[in-house]
């Protein structure tokens, strides 16, 4: 009974910190209709800043907390709202998601530049104080966390439901023009909500720091639990959000206490936030959301079949010349760039044509790589089997998540990616106890690998363009533009989505098989959850609506670790630039290659 009480207290404390973070997320969404994926990254950076002031600079804890939560975090929220989110007002959910991912990745880069990796212990609040409940001790930090959770939940409820400012915030979301006629200022109210939301993200991050320690990715992705709590409240009910956060904290605490200590159950405990997110998305009543597709004002032109094969011939000839001229190291890097390009072709099909934002596409690459590695065969058949297994997994996810769309579907892919990461890819199920597998090469020479990757890229790229010109492609574009209109005309929107998910996953699985035999050794670290986020950003920066964009994105994705290893001081700066570029180009998912298309069209005109 004593242990049960202790774990209950621990769960309530952790859930209280989640409630603080989730409250800020609900506030920004309910007053701006923008789901801030970078909410956890804001809390992470502010927690590092708190460490800098309180531990490294020696300021009193209360003063450091006041400066971070009361000054720095609100100012940062104002900057994000003014220069990023205000420009995306009224944009589809997919575009705001990409901008949020850009903020997330950029902030991780900022933290890496300012605070290089090292152990940074953080003292709890009031660590000398506490009370005893039975035989369990509740520390001062635990009491502060619980009090903050209750005050934040109550304060936000009063703000949004009992004050003129809160009512005006909600009115400006529903009808900003009408609200302006009554004297409200929508831009100021939006800025206020983002300032408060950032302050709450900072407070939640600081409260969680003594429990999880300061880590860039861990603290950023810890907010997945806050996402789940916010979705329990359907992104608008603060009492249900508070209850959901406490419930999730208790579930995690009891899992630590009473589940077995075998490797599988250890992985299962780590996957509880993602599993909860997935379950909540599937069982909760759906609320109307804007279409979640990534759309540009005008997509790039689709080439004809003749033009496609002429371009394929020129590309193949270029690949042959490069294979003959470059040294083996460069040939291997170019082959890797083409493999990444094939992965991005799967996103052209899914996101560019299908309008579905996926935050877990690299997981299918891992499925294909593990399948090929487990088969242990250096043959094209193994690559096709890997693609088939990935397609089956993609179809299963699509069938499971058929009832959700837009924002909910994107978050479902994030939950699926973390489930696969914790339960399969990071466990002995995939890579054994050593955490890595040897993969025989299909072709030994680096030049041969380059030609193989080029050939597969040409075939997959031509196939993607053929799908776009065909009946399925026209239906995909129609569904992306208006799924309601397509359903009215009798199209089976759900099965179109299943086909798109399956084909996209198959392409990613094929790329995973090529990646495995190119690297010869694949490990669990190659397919971590965080790898999905730069993939989406490179796709949008280069151009997620064209095969040329996939090729450019693959090259950029290959160059990023090369530049980071060659210039270690540039590593964090590169991540910052990646996030800034993605946030800036979120409005134009046709990407950098569209500039070339427009220049060519102007020259011809």
From TrEMBL:
<protein>
    <submittedName>
        <fullName>Branched-chain amino acid transport system permease protein</fullName>
    </submittedName>
</protein>
<dbReference type="GO" id="GO:0005886">
    <property type="term" value="C:plasma membrane"/>
</dbReference>
<keyword id="KW-1133">Transmembrane helix</keyword>
<feature type="transmembrane region" description="Helical">
    <location>
        <begin position="191"/>
        <end position="210"/>
    </location>
</feature>
<keyword id="KW-0813">Transport</keyword>
<feature type="transmembrane region" description="Helical">
    <location>
        <begin position="59"/>
        <end position="80"/>
    </location>
</feature>
<feature type="transmembrane region" description="Helical">
    <location>
        <begin position="143"/>
        <end position="160"/>
    </location>
</feature>
<keyword id="KW-0812">Transmembrane</keyword>
<feature type="transmembrane region" description="Helical">
    <location>
        <begin position="381"/>
        <end position="399"/>
    </location>
</feature>
<feature type="transmembrane region" description="Helical">
    <location>
        <begin position="567"/>
        <end position="586"/>
    </location>
</feature>
<feature type="transmembrane region" description="Helical">
    <location>
        <begin position="240"/>
        <end position="259"/>
    </location>
</feature>
<feature type="transmembrane region" description="Helical">
    <location>
        <begin position="445"/>
        <end position="467"/>
    </location>
</feature>
<feature type="transmembrane region" description="Helical">
    <location>
        <begin position="34"/>
        <end position="53"/>
    </location>
</feature>
<feature type="transmembrane region" description="Helical">
    <location>
        <begin position="305"/>
        <end position="325"/>
    </location>
</feature>
<dbReference type="Pfam" id="PF02653">
    <property type="entry name" value="BPD_transp_2"/>
</dbReference>
<dbReference type="InterPro" id="IPR043428">
    <property type="entry name" value="LivM-like"/>
</dbReference>
<dbReference type="GO" id="GO:0006865">
    <property type="term" value="P:amino acid transport"/>
</dbReference>
<dbReference type="GO" id="GO:0015658">
    <property type="term" value="F:branched-chain amino acid transmembrane transporter activity"/>
</dbReference>
<feature type="transmembrane region" description="Helical">
    <location>
        <begin position="536"/>
        <end position="560"/>
    </location>
</feature>
<feature type="transmembrane region" description="Helical">
    <location>
        <begin position="331"/>
        <end position="350"/>
    </location>
</feature>
<comment type="similarity">
    <text>Belongs to the binding-protein-dependent transport system permease family. LivHM subfamily.</text>
</comment>
<dbReference type="InterPro" id="IPR052157">
    <property type="entry name" value="BCAA_transport_permease"/>
</dbReference>
<feature type="transmembrane region" description="Helical">
    <location>
        <begin position="265"/>
        <end position="284"/>
    </location>
</feature>
<keyword id="KW-0472">Membrane</keyword>
<dbReference type="InterPro" id="IPR001851">
    <property type="entry name" value="ABC_transp_permease"/>
</dbReference>
<keyword id="KW-0029">Amino-acid transport</keyword>
<feature type="transmembrane region" description="Helical">
    <location>
        <begin position="498"/>
        <end position="516"/>
    </location>
</feature>
<feature type="transmembrane region" description="Helical">
    <location>
        <begin position="92"/>
        <end position="115"/>
    </location>
</feature>
<feature type="transmembrane region" description="Helical">
    <location>
        <begin position="216"/>
        <end position="233"/>
    </location>
</feature>
<feature type="transmembrane region" description="Helical">
    <location>
        <begin position="6"/>
        <end position="27"/>
    </location>
</feature>
<keyword id="KW-1003">Cell membrane</keyword>
């Amino acid at each position: 009974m004593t242990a049960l009480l202790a774990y209950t207290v621990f769960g309530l404390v952790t859930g209280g910190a989640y409630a603080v973070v989730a409250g800020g997320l609900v506030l920004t969404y309910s007053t701006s209709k923008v789901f801030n994926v970078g909410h956890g990254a804001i809390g992470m950076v502010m927690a590092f800043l708190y460490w800098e002031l309180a531990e490294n600079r020696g300021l009193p804890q209360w003063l450091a907390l006041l400066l971070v939560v009361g000054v720095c975090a609100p100012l940062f929220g104002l900057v994000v709202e003014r220069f990023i989110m205000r420009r995306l007002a009224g944009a589809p959910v997919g575009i705001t998601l990409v901008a949020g991912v850009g903020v997330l990745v950029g902030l991780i880069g900022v933290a890496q530049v300012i605070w290089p990796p090292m152990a940074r212990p953080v003292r709890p609040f009031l660590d000398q104080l506490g009370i005893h409940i039975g035989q369990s001790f509740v520390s001062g930090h635990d009491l502060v966390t619980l009090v903050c959770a209750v005050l934040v939940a109550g304060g936000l409820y009063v703000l949004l439901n009992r004050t003129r400012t809160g009512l005006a915030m909600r009115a400006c979301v529903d009808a900003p023009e009408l609200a302006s006629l009554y004297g409200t200022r929508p831009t100021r109210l939006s800025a206020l909500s983002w300032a408060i939301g950032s302050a709450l993200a900072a407070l939640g991050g600081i409260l969680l720091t003594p429990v999880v320690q300061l880590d860039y990715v861990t603290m950023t992705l810890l907010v997945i639990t806050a996402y789940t709590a916010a979705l329990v409240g359907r992104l608008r009910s603060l009492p249900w959000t508070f209850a959901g956060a406490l419930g999730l904290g208790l579930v995690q605490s009891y899992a630590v206490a009473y589940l077995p200590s075998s490797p599988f159950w250890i992985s299962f405990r780590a996957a509880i936030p993602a599993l909860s997110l997935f379950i909540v998305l599937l069982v909760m009543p759906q609320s109307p959301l804007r279409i979640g597709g990534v759309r540009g004002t005008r997509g790039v032109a689709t080439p004809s079949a003749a033009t496609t094969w002429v371009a394929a011939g020129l590309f193949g000839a270029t690949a042959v010349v490069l294979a003959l001229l470059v040294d083996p190291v460069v040939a291997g890097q170019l082959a890797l760039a083409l493999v990444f390009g094939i992965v991005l072709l799967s996103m052209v099909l899914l996101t560019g044509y299908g309008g579905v934002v996926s935050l877990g596409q690299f997981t299918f690459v891992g499925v294909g790589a593990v399948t090929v590695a487990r088969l242990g065969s250096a043959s094209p058949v193994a690559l096709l089997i890997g693609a088939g297994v990935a397609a089956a997994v993609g179809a299963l996810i699509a069938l499971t998540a058929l009832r959700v769309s837009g924002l909910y579907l994107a978050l479902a892919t994030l939950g699926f990616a973390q489930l696969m990461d914790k339960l399969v890819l990071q466990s002995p199920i995939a890579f054994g106890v050593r955490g890595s597998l040897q993969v025989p090469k299909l072709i030994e020479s680096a030049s041969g690998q380059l030609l193989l990757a080029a050939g597969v890229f040409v075939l997959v790229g031509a196939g993607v363009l053929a799908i776009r010109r065909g009946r399925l492609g026209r239906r995909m574009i129609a569904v992306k533009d208006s799924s309601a209109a397509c359903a009215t005309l009798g199209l089976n929107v759900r099965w179109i989505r299943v086909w798109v998910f399956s084909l996209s996953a198959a392409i990613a699985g094929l790329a995973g098989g090529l990646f495995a035999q190119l690297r010869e050794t694949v490990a669990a670290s190659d397919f971590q959850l965080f790898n999905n986020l730069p993939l989406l950003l490179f796709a949008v920066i280069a151009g997620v609506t064209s095969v040329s964009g996939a090729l450019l994105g693959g090259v950029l994705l290959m160059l990023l670790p090369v530049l980071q290893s060659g210039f270690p001081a540039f590593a964090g700066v590169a991540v910052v630039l990646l996030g800034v570029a993605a946030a800036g180009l979120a409005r134009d998912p046709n990407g950098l290659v569209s500039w070339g298309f427009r220049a060519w069209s102007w020259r011809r005109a």
